Amino acid sequence: MALLLDKDGLELLTPGSAQPEGDRNLHKLLQSLPLYEVERIYAVTPSETVLPMGELQVEAITAEQSRSLIANSRHVISF
């Protein structure tokens, strides 16, 4: 299973970014992704680098690569 972060979702990669009041702490949720069998995390960014996010590694991909990833996925959930 993979997680793809794009647009507003990229804010989750910024340490200390503000969490809207009353919302879940998504930073803590990201750290628990291995428990949900999320094996790969991708971020749509202009540069192809690996971004550290605590113990998780985030692979930067281009918008074209993200379209290919989505097209080749069996199931896609968007939120």
Main attributes?
single chain; alpha/beta; 79 residues
Structural summary, described in words:
With 79 residues, this protein is α/β, with parallel strands linked by helices. The chain is built from two helices and four strands. The chain has helices spanning 26-31, 63-71; strands spanning 2-5, 40-44, 50-53, 56-61. Strands 1-2-4-3 form a four-stranded mixed sheet. The longest helix is centred in the last third of the chain and has 9 residues, at 63-71. The chain starts with a strand and ends in an 8-residue tail after the last helix. The mean pLDDT is 79.
Itemize the secondary structure elements and their pairings.
Elements lengths: L1 E4 L20 H6 L8 E5 L5 E4 L2 E6 L1 H9 L8
Parallel strand pairs: 1-2, 2-4
Antiparallel strand pairs: 3-4
Summarize the structure.
The protein is of the alpha/beta class and 79 residues long.
Question: What Rg do the Cα atoms give?
Answer: 13 Å
Structural class: alpha/beta
Percentage beta strand: 15-25%
Cα shape = globular
Strand arrangement across the biggest beta sheet = 1-2-4-3
Largest sheet: 4 strands, mixed
Total helix count?
2
The residue fraction in helices comes out at 10-25%
Uncertain spans, ≥5 residues at pLDDT below 50?
none
Order of helices and strands: EHEEEH
